[in-house]
């Protein structure tokens, strides 16, 4: 994927970009982000809520892709000094899970913006580990412009 060793946002600050909190944080770092493409990394921990029998579950893989998309939106909001909006998975299409990663695997997840229409963003997502594709999908994400992570934190 042409990834460098330098992260845009590391593990110490990743929670600034996403509305999720422990135990459901599913990305460790934002590696790259531009107008159409965002890349994150995540190391599968044995204590992760989505780990079962030594492997990250399908639900964890999907959440990892969704949080990569959330980190993109959070990164844009941070650059604009704006509140981080809340998004919701509105649909998943063409989900293909080829393999589940073991504990201690480092996942590299890439999302590409395919289209944005009426508050709905359609992305293609792909997660790899050691150059092996683990999962691909298309995901529709609705961004609620009237609800942000600061509002949720107050409730």
3D structure, described in words:
There is one protein chain. The protein has helices at residues 58-79, 149-154, and strands at 29-33, 37-43, 51-52, 55-56, 85-97, 106-117, 120-129, 132-148. The protein is an alpha+beta fold. The strands form two sheets. The chain has a six-stranded antiparallel beta sheet. Strands 3-4 form a two-stranded antiparallel sheet. The longest helix has 22 residues, at 58-79. It is globular.
Please identify the structural class as seen in this structure: alpha+beta
Strand order of the largest sheet: 1-2-6-7-8-5
Distance between the first and last residues' Cα = 39 Å
Name the helix and strand elements from N-terminus to C-terminus, one letter apiece: EEEEHEEEEH
Tally the helices.
2
Characteristics of this structure?
155 residues; two-stranded antiparallel sheet; alpha+beta; globular; 8 strands; six-stranded antiparallel beta sheet; disordered C terminus; 18% helix; 2 helices
Question: What's this, in brief?
Answer:
With 155 residues, the protein is α+β, with helices and mostly antiparallel strands. The protein has 2 helices and 8 strands.
